[in-house]
Amino acid sequence: MKRVIRGKTYNTETATLVAFRDNGCSITNFYYCGESLYRTPRGIYFLHGKGGPMSRYTRTTDSGRSWIGGEKIIPISETEAQKWLEGDTGGYGVKEGCSCQQCGVLFTIDLNIPDFLWDKISRGKNLLCPVCIIKNIIMHHRNEYAVYHLKRG
Fold it and tell me: Which of the listed residues 96, 113, 137 is the one where a domain comes to its end?
């Protein structure tokens, strides 16, 4: 990606990739958010962020009636780059894990659940942590399925 911002050119193809991190969600997940820290040949730092329609990198379609994933280049100072490397995102989008729509806990686990079962236990929510999945099975379908207890690690 290449952008000119305030007269300076930022290009992911000519800059050096310093580090990358994402929130652990699948890239096809609406909440996916990933950021790469780059350094230009002149020593200028910038973030290249990408995300799904529910991330900070969302954008509207040309019609303005729906949201889709997007990407952006964000110039940052050397101090901000150092903080980003130390794990302080400074409000730039990447959080560890996806947020459960039922309890709000961040999690970074992918579970493959058959559609027929997901329809029964999700109760209209698309993103649940493993603990809430088990709770919903226990509360609403206890007699139908064997329950395996998950421990927080």
Answer: 96
C-alpha to C-alpha distance for 104 and 82, rounded to whole angstroms: 29
At 94, the pLDDT band (50, 70, 90 cuts) reads very low
The total of structural domains in the chain comes to 2
Residue with tokens 């954008």: 59
Write down the pTM of the prediction: 0.57
In the block, residue with structure tokens 């950021």: 35
Q: What share of the chain is helix, strand, coil (3-state, %, to 5)?
A: 20, 30, 55
Q: DSSP label at 144?
A: T
Confidence of residue 27 (pLDDT cuts 50, 70, 90): confident
26 residue type, one letter: S
Indicate if 79 and 102 belong to the same structural domain.
no
With CA atoms as reference, report the closest residue to 89 among 47, 39, 54: 47
- Choose one of 96, 115, 131: the last residue of a domain: 96
Query: How far is Cα 15 from Cα 45, in angstroms, rounded to an integer?
Result: 9
- More confident call, 88 vs 125: 125
Q: Are 35 and 47 a contacting pair, CB within 8 Å?
A: yes
Tokens of 141: 């379908």
Residues 11, 40, single domain; the answer is yes
